[in-house]
Amino acid sequence: QVQLVESGGGLVQAGGSLRLSCAASGRTSSNYAMGWFRQAPGKEREFVAAISWTGGWTIYADSVEGRFTISRDNAKRSLYLQMNSLKPEDTAAYYCAARSGPAARPMVGEYSYWGQGTQVTVSS
After folding, report:
1. Alpha-carbon span 67 to 57, nearest angstrom
2. How remote is the C-alpha of 106 from its chain's centroid?
3. Which residues pair with 73 in a beta bridge?
């Protein structure tokens, strides 16, 4: 079982930056890829970014490509999301997720472990 706890959300003006963190704890049976997802009110949870176990492979949603950067530190069992040039449409609850297996994937259903979420609000 893996427990995930996000932090770093908040209120920021359009054009600003935030850095989200996710701390993992508990026991994992294998190397695990991780990802960030977000959910705005009244909308489905959507993929933001994912990273492989080694950190050598990353994928991004088109809407955040070039503005967001996902990274991880396996020694610290931590995942990060650097968000730059934020837009009001980035406003959502952001969730950290982990999946059994080393490959980064973009689908919600491929992740077994989820954090409780951290709110990001971007004002115009």
Report:
1. 17
2. 11
3. 78
pLDDT at 1: 81
Strands (E), 40-117: 46-51, 58-60, 68-73, 78-83, 92-100, 113-114
Per-residue pLDDT at 30: 64
Q: Which two tokens stand for residue 123?
A: 């004002």
| Tokens standing for residue 34 | 């991780």
> What is the block-wise mean pLDDT of the chain (124 residues), using blocks of 10 residues?
94 98 83 96 97 96 98 95 98 96 95 97 97
Under DSSP, the state recorded for 27 is: -
**Helix (H, G, I), strand (E, B), or coil: what is residue 110?**
helix
**Total residues belonging to the chain:** 124
